[in-house]
Amino acid sequence: MVLCIANDDSHSLSHLSLKFGVPLKSCRHLLESAKKSHVEVVGVSFHIGSGCPDPQAYAQSIADARLVFEMGTELGHRMHVLDLGGGFPGTEGAKVRFEEIASVINSALDLYFPEGCGVDILAELGRYYVTSAFTVAVSIIAKKEVLLDQPGREEENGSAPKTSVYHLDEGIYGIFNSVLFDNICPTPILQKKPSMEQPLYSSSLWGPAVDGCDCVAEGLWLPQLHVGDWLVFENMGAYTMGMGSLFGGTQACHITYAMSRVAWEALRRQLMATEQDDDMEGVCKPLSCGWEITDTLCVGPVFTPASIM
User: Fold this and answer.
1) Contact between 253 and 170 (Cβ < 8 Å)
2) What angle do CA 41, 42, 47 make, to 5 degrees?
3) Residue among 142, 181, 183 at smallest CA distance from 164
4) What is the DSSP letter of 224?
5) Which residues form the Orn/DAP/Arg decarboxylase 2 N-terminal domain (predicted)?
6) What is the SS3 assignment for 247?
7) 119 touches 81 (CB < 8 A)
8) Model-level pTM?
9) d(CA 289, CA 267)
């Protein structure tokens, strides 16, 4: 077994220590109990939560893990696994870049678990790999205007201020459940770019559920939209479709896989060349996406291969 330890995730968007993880003061008791019960503890894991703005939280958790390793070894456990957890950012615009986190982690590992110490280092990189790989396209299924409850305030034309409420075919009980779990406010990209002269209106986006909680985003300023218009949301690969429920019998969303034309043409040429001569030396094997074949291209892909839900 692996002992999961608690940490300070108070600054993270997603708090996991509230439910998972034991404080350091209780680790020795658990390790002793495991030994008496003939349960072999082989390592330590932790998870500082998603969206942590402080990379030093990883360093502190690694230092805590070192103490638990020493407790376990002293009690006769063969400790050799360290799991660094997940929550690593998968977008370029994150407050803390992945490279910064990796630098802090590597420095802490060099200090507490140096190379050659016999410990296998693991990490859970799901969010890092898939966040930017998917883009979601949703359509507007209903629209209404609501008066803002702001006494004494009027618009330029003398009428009371209004906000446009748009209902989408997906909500927080489906693809946008990250609004609940990660406290994010998804920002849509319009299907058609508005002109500079086009006025913007106070707007909010809601899911299809008939309750007051299914709010995807509010406080937005958008041009006049209509039923049937499409909105696009980038960086929607992590904890979206896989975490959603089939609310009200809603069908699972359709997935379309896409890659740049440059990458597709290069891949197609490689496939044809391989089919003609399987023994030809120097020909790369067919690969799965555009970025993987950039090393064999004269020019890089136009954009990162992505998937549209």
Assistant:
1) yes
2) 95
3) 142
4) -
5) 2-130
6) helix
7) yes
8) 0.72
9) 8
